[in-house]
Amino acid sequence: MNYSQMDPAEVRRLIREGEITGPTSGMCAGYAQANLVILPKDLAYDFLLFTQRNQKSCPILEVSDMGSRSLKYIANNVDIAKDIPKYRVYEDGILTGEYTSVEHLWRDNFVSFLIGCSFSFESELLEAGISIRHIEENCNVPMFKTNIECEPAGIFNGKMVVSMRPIPYDQIVKSVMVTGTMPKVHGAPIHIGDPSVIGISDVTKPDFGDSVQIKEGEVPVFWPCGVTPQSVVMNVKPKIVITHSPGHMLITDVKNVDLKY
Amino acid sequence: MNYSQMDPAEVRRLIREGEITGPTSGMCAGYAQANLVILPKDLAYDFLLFTQRNQKSCPILEVSDMGSRSLKYIANNVDIAKDIPKYRVYEDGILTGEYTSVEHLWRDNFVSFLIGCSFSFESELLEAGISIRHIEENCNVPMFKTNIECEPAGIFNGKMVVSMRPIPYDQIVKSVMVTGTMPKVHGAPIHIGDPSVIGISDVTKPDFGDSVQIKEGEVPVFWPCGVTPQSVVMNVKPKIVITHSPGHMLITDVKNVDLKY
C-alpha cells in the first residue's frame, strides 16, 4: 500500500482497525503528525502552563476536553484511544506496557495533549532543497539532552531535549528561515554550531535516536524537540501517563502549510 | 514629565507610589504593554485552555504562579497588585470598585494572566508609515462585538470582540504584513472590508471605545481584540475577577520588536 498518498481519515481507519501498527513516518504526505501525552486532569493545569512557558519545545496543536476521546480542531472523527498505531503506558514513571489501543485503560478524567512534530518542518526543509541526513541514512533523528533549563511550571521542570540535523554552511540561513515560519512545530533552531555550548559533550553519541554522519563543511544545527514534554512528564513519575510510542504518531487533517498561519 | 522616553521600571515605580494613576498610552515608547485578568485558581485551567484555543484574541504573554504577585518573564520586580494605575474589581459579574492598588483584596489562590495589547502593533504600523485614525483623532479605538464564536473551553465561551482601524486601499497589504509578524499581540487582521460579514450592522456605532471617521478610499480593517477575554470572563460572572481599567495597562520590560520572535 502507498500510504504516502492516502487521505489521513483513511489511514486513521486502518490504524483503528489494527491494519497499521508500525511507525507513521512518510504517511499522508503534506499532513501534520502529532505527539501525544495523556494525563489525568489533576496534572493538566500544570502541564498546560508548562507548555505555555515552553512553546518552542512544547508547541500545542490541541488539548482535548476532559474525558473526551474525540478532537475538535486538528482531526475529524478521531478516537484518541485507538487512532495511534502504538501507545506506551507509564505508571509511577515505569513503562508498564505497549498497546495498539488504550480503550481498556480509558478514564473519565483523562486530558489529551497533541503536540507539534518535526516531521512537519522536515517536509518543508526537503521542499526547500535541504537534505535531511537521518532520512538519507534511513534511521531516527539524533536527539540530545541539553543544559538548557525549561521554564518550570507547577510540578513540571527539566532540561530541553533537542534534535540535530547537519546542515552545509551555505544552507544554514535558509534552514533558519524555513523552520522559523513554523512556530507551531518547534520553529527556528535553538542553537547552531559548537554542541558544547548547550551542554552536549559528544555529538556522535545521541541520548535518543540514532547517530548520523556530519560531513566536512557541515554544521550541527539543533532544534527544540517534542521529546522534551515527555521527558519532563516522566521526571515527576505520575501515577499514570499514556503517550504515543516513538515514531507512531497521530496523523492529523491539518496540512503542514497551514501551520504557518 | 515625558513618560514616553522613561524606562519601564521607573514608570512602574511612579505607578506603584501613586504618582501616576492615569492611562498608560504613549508611555515608555517601544515597550509592550499588557492587559490583566486575575482569576481564582479554580477557574484558571478553563481560562488558560480558552486562551490556548483562541490565541488571536487572547495572546498570553505570561501566566503568574498561583498566589504570586511577581512576574518572571515579561517584567522584573513587579508587584501585580500595585503596578497598574487603575484596577477594576468585579464580583458576580458586577463592577464593585476601581482601585489604584488591589493589595487589600489579594488572595493566595489568585492567578494573573497578562495578555498582549494592540498598542504594540500600532507602534509598528506607525513606524511603517500607516496612520492610525483614533490616534489622530485623540480618542479610543472603536471596538465591536462580532458574530464570530470563540472556541469554547470549559465554562468559558462567547463572541470575539474586534478593534477597527480605517486603512487606505494602498496600505491594506502592508498593514496585514506588519501586524502578521506579531502574533503575540493579536497578529494579522481577522477581517478586511464589509463589516456585515462579521455581524457588525453599523460601523459608526462601536460597542466599546469611540467612533472614528472612515474617509473616501479607506476600508475598515478589523483585528482580534484583547477585550475578548475580559468579555468572555464577564459572561460567566465569577465570584471575583480583577482586571486593569481600560487603557491603564501593565508596562512590561519587553520591547515590541522582541514580540516578533
Automatic annotation (TrEMBL), chains A, B:
Gene Ontology molecular functions = lyase activity
Q: Which UniProt keywords apply?
A: Lyase
Matching InterPro entries? D-Glu_cyclase (IPR009906), Putative_hydro-lyase (IPR038021), UPF0317 (IPR016938)
Q: Which Pfam families match?
A: D-Glu_cyclase
EC code:
4.2.1.-
Q: Which PANTHER family match?
A: D-GLUTAMATE CYCLASE, MITOCHONDRIAL (PTHR32022)
Q: Which family does it belong to?
A: Belongs to the D-glutamate cyclase family.
Q: What is this protein called?
A: Putative hydro-lyase CLSA_c30910
Which lineage do the record's taxonomy fields give for this organism? Answer: Bacteria, Bacillati, Bacillota, Clostridia, Eubacteriales
